[in-house]
Specification:
- The chain has seven helices and no strands.
- The protein has one domain.
- The chain is mainly α.
Length: 126
Amino acid sequence: MASALQRDLETIELPIPMIREQLLPAMRAMANGEPLGKDVRYFRLFVDSTTQSPRQRAFFLQISAEFFCAAEHWDKARDALTAAAEMPLIDVLWMDRCPAIAELRDDAAFARARAIVAARAADVFA
């Protein structure tokens, strides 16, 4: 049992250096109103991690979609949103109201992703 818990702890701690070194500086810059720039490659490290639960990956895909929109990487934002919809995402309110992804709402891919998420949410809350 102790070794299983240790392995879980190691899995949890795995992304901490990445968060500290790459994500936090970007978040601080955003909070200070600094330009985001166009370099968004570090988000792929979070999204592509196979050590995360599907829900956690969906969450990072949500954040990625927002960040890609802010950086005007529309195709990457659309891809992140579509991928999040394929995960266990049920956050219809985020899709409907998040101002960061407003530019995507008129896109056909957004409508398809929203329909998937809304159907899943309806099943969960039925």
